[in-house]
Design brief:
disordered C terminus, about 280 residues
Length: about 280
């Protein structure tokens, strides 16, 4: 929401960089937890991990790039210019590309960073997460730190160098406080915002660019509404059904494995883990 508010002009540029920093901290925590729990249960597989990430992220990305590319073609943009923008986004290397005019897929630079992280971090991970403390003040302290970060970010000459120094500690407090449960963050509207957040991230920049309302505050609201509606459809019709089908397929494959195919260590139940 911080990133969208920045791109719509409701926060001073580059406050969106603070939102991206929070996202990277949260994503790093979640992915690390997924890897550690899989290793502890004996189910870790790098191919499965990469496949899960692909199913989670690529279909919605492909849909957005395809639809926006068709719109650009209808507006008379040449195939070469469309490809120059679409290919880096689909290949997760947008963050390595030089700045372009009309960066309709420019938001995917952070998705490129994320995908590159997925390929490196599992191999670099050599430690396990310990239990996080349950303290009531963690989320309020993190939220206050986030507000301060957004306020001071515009004063930094190099936001992506100095901004994270302020935002990362706040994001860590927020994640640590939320990990054990938090009533505010578990409110249904916030949960739904999180549910559609990936699709909103994908669609809001093209809608703002195509409507010419980037950073135009009130004028950007119709484009944002369209982006949210499309994001809801993308989440409910494309992303979630694909993920459910993928998980069902994996579950069926695991249940088809015969006990003789498993090592004694794999077949033996692990203490402290339920089978729910």
């Amino acid at each position: 929401m911080v990133v969208v508010a920045d791109h719509a002009g409701y926060l001073d540029e580059p406050a969106g960089g603070i939102g991206v920093t929070v996202f990277f901290v949260l994503s790093g925590f979640l992915i690390t937890r997924v890897i550690v729990e899989a290793c502890d249960s004996g189910s870790w597989s790098m191919p499965d991990f990469v496949a899960n990430r692909f199913v989670r992220l690529f279909p919605a990305l492909l849909l957005m790039v395809a639809v926006v590319s068709v719109i650009l073609a209808e507006r008379g943009v040449s195939t070469d210019r469309i490809a120059d923008r679409a290919v880096p986004a689909l290949a997760y290397v947008q963050n390595m590309e030089p700045p372009r005019r009309f960066p309709v897929f420019g938001q995917t630079w952070s998705l490129g960073v994320e995908e590159q992280f997925y390929l490196v971090w599992p191999f670099a991970l050599t430690w396990l997460l310990g239990p996080l403390p349950r303290r009531w003040w963690l989320v309020p302290a993190g939220a206050l730190g986030l507000v301060v970060s957004i306020k001071v970010a515009p004063s930094f000459h190099q936001i992506y160098v100095y901004g994270p120094l302020v935002a990362v500690p706040a994001a860590v407090l927020l994640v640590a406080g939320a990990a054990g449960g938090n009533r505010l963050l578990e409110l249904s509207p916030l949960q739904f915002a999180g549910r559609i957040s990936y699709a909103v991230y994908l669609w809001h920049v093209p809608m703002l660019r195509l409507s010419g309302t980037s950073y135009d505050r009130e004028a950007a609201i119709p484009a944002l509404v369209i982006a949210v509606v499309v994001a809801v459809v993308s989440t409910l019709v494309v992303e979630e059904p694909l993920r459910r089908a993928w998980r069902l397929r994996r579950s069926q494959r695991r249940h088809q494995a015969r006990p003789a195919d498993l090592t004694p260590e794999q077949a033996a139940p692990r203490a402290g883990y339920s089978h729910t």
